[in-house]
């Protein structure tokens, strides 16, 4: 039986546009303001190409006005009682619900996505986000003690889920006491403007939310504005990279939710009819214009032919057409440019030898439509297997073994999401942690909720939106204000001269893969104490670091070990350091000239700190999120991978322990550059490592000049995370270079911790920076 047309009326939305004379202003400081730029651009309906409205183009001066309004509103808003902030967020949620129909129609007209999806997914999830974060606003004081707002937040969103992305950005930001300037995508500004009207209606204090419409230039002006304390961006990896580079070294916090090429893995025991519906949701939901679209179908070879046949049968029945028709499955592509991108990539897929299949029917001609498309016979390295198409195009490949499935799934520079299909829950839970992605859906796909974090691994960006993990993107520790702009001053005070037995005349080697090795270049550098040279260390180079990274990568057992197992090794480290504490204290005296009391204190604190992280190995655990579906949603902290750590120069033993231990406690392997001027505590530490059952490759140490070694680490493609404790310039270069593979960075521009103090030198902040949260969704129900 054929479906007849079931059009939703667009009258209310068109009347709303008419009520504004089909021309809008910017929403700044609680008022509607004509753009200083005096420029406008047009918004059209991609299903019909009809004109919808003129949208103001915000230039530098408009952005500046908005940022200043947000700055002015900040003190009042951040001091507003949590409960009062909660009430505002609650009122926003209620108003979105009350106006749900208008929002969904407007969204469908503006974006081309189907009314069924805006009505059932986009708008309800936007409201849900404000409800959920009304709760977090209320609970901030009790659930996030020791944290405060960040300040003025610049938020830049894409066109694929306009209101939902706005909600994901604004709700947590204002819940935590920040004020915001949000720039919607040029193609889809309308629901953001309706949202601004709603902020007016609920009397949200002026300047808390400012909406500046515009294009990439407007976004760039926001990124560059010096008053902005954080940028939250969703969009392409290309623009994410530019923003990473621009904000490098500025101290602006950054979260990036970027592209993806997510695997949809089907094992042979799956319920194939369920899989077919899953495929529809994975790649034909929202026209495939979804960052986490399951765009790579990986099928076990034994069932591939059968599944492809079923998928083709289903594709034949999909309906492409007007976004306002309730019987439409796939709406219009957002713009002619995006349509062209899809067509070009599909052509490339064919040129590279892929077999393309499309249903027999033709798409309507009056809008920007593209039919559902399936590619088979493609190789994992072909362009369409690697590039984000952002359209309704599915690329299928086969695998034979479970191991091969994981390899193929991870054969991408991205890591946003994955879905796994099997009736064997043991297999699903074995595979889920092995796939490098921020979200893993088991026997489901493309489901989202405010209670669960969403965000990427690798080039899909960093930071999470939603869940408690997402809140940390919008707060900072109250202890941050105590961190000094100057290194702790410990001028030589000791007059104690060393016994000759501690005057080292040999050159301390590097420590790579569990072995002491000579520096590749054969060069060494002197280590000076207050009374002259006290030793030499190898001067590491690019090759030493490469070897160290390789050793860190080949270490397989550490990450797989249980927290309890890792704790045993860490306690053993503490025990062995304790056994040699006098020797280490002497070393500190020889290098720094500190008093014996200070030296002993540093060693004792180092032992205590190792104990702290040993204790945390099996206690820094995840959560089961209460999402709105019949799901167990596991939020699991996973290690980042191979981490580079450039230690502070100050406190050569304590600084080393305080940075390396949290990273390895969480299961990372490390490449460490110790204090440049006082490296001998780290090189002495080899013996402690060797006697403590730390597997080779977990801690690799390369001594040398920080300025030379840090850029190599920052540029290294196989380093997943990099911590740098040093100068402002060094911090900037680390963040800038990290844009290449989007490695996680943690730097200290112009800031120097007092590592002796627990509130600066240890704690959950170190563990959070050593991990990334993966959310695994497991539906239930008989
Ligand atoms: P962009 O990354 O260009 O756009 C995202 C947002 O950033 C928009 O608001 C855009 O403004 C703005 N922007 C563009 N340039 C800059 C800049 N230099 N500085 C600051 N902000 C900037 O994505 P597109 O919309 O152009 O889409 C291109 C491709 O990106 C798609 O084909 C798709 O592959 C991918 N994409 C991924 C998304 C995701 O969620 N991961 C979402 C959207 C796209 P403007 O309004 O001018 O677009």
Can you tell me about this structure?
- The protein is an alpha/beta fold and 782 residues long.
- Helix content is 41%, strand content 18%.
- The protein has 27 helices and 32 strands.
- The strands form 8 sheets. Strands 13-14-15-12-11-16-17-32-26-25 form a 10-stranded mixed beta sheet, with helices on both faces.
- β28, α23 and β29 form a beta-alpha-beta unit.
- The longest helix has 29 residues.
- The protein is globular and about 90 Å long.
- It starts with 10 loop residues before the first helix and ends with a strand.
- About 1% of the residues have low confidence.
- The structure holds NADPH dihydro-nicotinamide-adenine-dinucleotide phosphate.
- NADPH dihydro-nicotinamide-adenine-dinucleotide phosphate (NDP) binds next to α8, α9 and α12.
């Amino acid at each position: 039986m054929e479906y007849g047309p079931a059009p939703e009326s667009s009258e209310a939305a068109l009347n709303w546009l008419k009520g504004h004379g089909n021309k809008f202003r910017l929403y700044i400081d609680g008022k509607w303001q004509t753009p200083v730029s005096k420029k406008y651009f047009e918004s059209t309906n991609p299903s019909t190409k009809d004109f919808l409205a003129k949208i103001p183009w915000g230039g530098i001066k408009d952005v500046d006005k908005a940022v200043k309004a947000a700055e002015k509103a900040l003190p009042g808003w951040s001091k507003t009682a949590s409960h009062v902030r909660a009430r505002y967020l609650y009122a926003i949620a209620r108003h979105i619900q009350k106006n749900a129909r208008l929002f969904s129609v407007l969204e469908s007209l503006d974006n081309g996505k189907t009314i069924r999806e805006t009505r059932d997914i986009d708008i309800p999830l936007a409201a849900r986000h404000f409800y959920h974060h009304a709760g977090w606003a209320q609970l901030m004081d009790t659930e996030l003690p020791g944290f405060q707002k960040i300040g003025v937040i610049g938020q830049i969103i894409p066109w694929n889920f306009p209101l939902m992305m706005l909600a994901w950005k604004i709700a947590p930001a204002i819940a935590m006491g920040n004020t915001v300037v949000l720039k919607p995508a040029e193609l889809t500004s309308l629901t953001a403007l309706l949202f601004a009207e709603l902020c007016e209606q609920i009397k949200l204090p002026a300047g808390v939310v400012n909406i500046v419409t515009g294009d990439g230039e407007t976004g760039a002006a926001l990124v560059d504005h010096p008053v902005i304390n954080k940028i939250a961006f969703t969009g392409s990896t290309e623009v994410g990279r530019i923003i990473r580079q621009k904000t490098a070294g500025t101290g602006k916090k950054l979260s990036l939710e970027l592209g993806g090429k997510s695997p949809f893995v089907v094992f042979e025991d799956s319920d194939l009819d369920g899989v077919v519906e899953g495929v529809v949701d994975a790649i034909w939901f929202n026209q495939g214009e979804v960052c986490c679209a399951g765009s790579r179908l990986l099928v076990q070879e034994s069932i591939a032919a059968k599944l492809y046949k079923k998928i083709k049968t289903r594709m034949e029945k999909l309906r492409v057409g007007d976004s306002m028709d309730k019987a439409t499955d796939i709406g219009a592509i957002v713009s002619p440019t995006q349509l062209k991108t899809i067509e070009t990539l599909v052509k490339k897929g064919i040129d590279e030898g892929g077999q393309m299949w499309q249903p027999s029917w033709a798409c309507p001609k009056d809008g920007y439509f593209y039919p559902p498309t399936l590619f088979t016979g493609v190789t994992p390295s072909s362009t369409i297997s690697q590039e984000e198409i952002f359209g309704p195009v599915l690329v299928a490949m086969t695998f034979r073994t479970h191991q091969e499935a994981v390899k193929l799934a991870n054969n991408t520079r991205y890591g946003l999401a994955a879905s796994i299909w099997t009736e064997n829950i043991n297999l699903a839970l074995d595979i889920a942690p092995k796939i490098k992605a921020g979200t893993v859906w088991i026997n489901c796909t493309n489901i989202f909720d405010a209670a669960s974090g969403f965000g990427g691994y690798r080039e899909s960006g960093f930071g999470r939106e939603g869940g408690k993990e997402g809140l940390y993107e919008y707060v900072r520790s109250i202890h941050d204000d105590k961190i000094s702009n100057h290194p702790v001053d410990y001028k030589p005070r000791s007059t104690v001269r060393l016994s000759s037995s501690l005057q080292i005349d040999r050159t301390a080697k590097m420590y790579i893969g569990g072995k002491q090795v000579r520096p590749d270049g054969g060069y060494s550098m002197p280590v000076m104490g207050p009374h002259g040279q006290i030793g030499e260390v190898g001067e590491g180079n690019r090759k030493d670091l490469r070897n160290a990274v390789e050793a860190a990568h080949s270490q397989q057992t550490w990450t797989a070990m249980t927290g309890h197992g890792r704790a045993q090794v860490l306690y053993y480290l503490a025990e062995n350091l304790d056994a040699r504490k006098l020797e280490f204290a002497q070393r500190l005296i020889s290098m720094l000239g500190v008093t014996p009391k200070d030296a002993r204190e540093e060693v004792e604190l180092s032992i205590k700190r190792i104990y702290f992280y040993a204790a945390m190995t099996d206690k820094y655990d995840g959560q089961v999120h209460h999402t709105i579906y019949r799901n167990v949603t596991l939020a699991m902290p996973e290690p980042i991978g191979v981490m580079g750590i450039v230690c502070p120069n100050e406190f050569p033993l304590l600084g080393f322990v305080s940075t390396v231990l949290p990273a390895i406690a969480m299961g990372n392997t490390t490449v460490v550059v110790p204090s440049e001027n006082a490296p001998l505590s780290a090189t002495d530490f080899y013996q402690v490592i060797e006697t403590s059952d730390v597997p080779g490759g977990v801690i690799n140490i390369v001594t040398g000049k920080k300025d030379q070694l840090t850029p190599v680490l920052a540029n290294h493609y196989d380093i997943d995370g990099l911590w740098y404790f040093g100068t402002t310039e060094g911090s900037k270069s680390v963040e800038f270079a990290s844009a290449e593979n989007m490695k996680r960075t943690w730097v200290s521009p112009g800031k120097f911790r007092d590592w002796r103090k627990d509130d600066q030198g240890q704690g959950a902040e170190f563990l959070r920076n050593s991990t990334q949260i993966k959310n695994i969704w497991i539906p239930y129900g008989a």
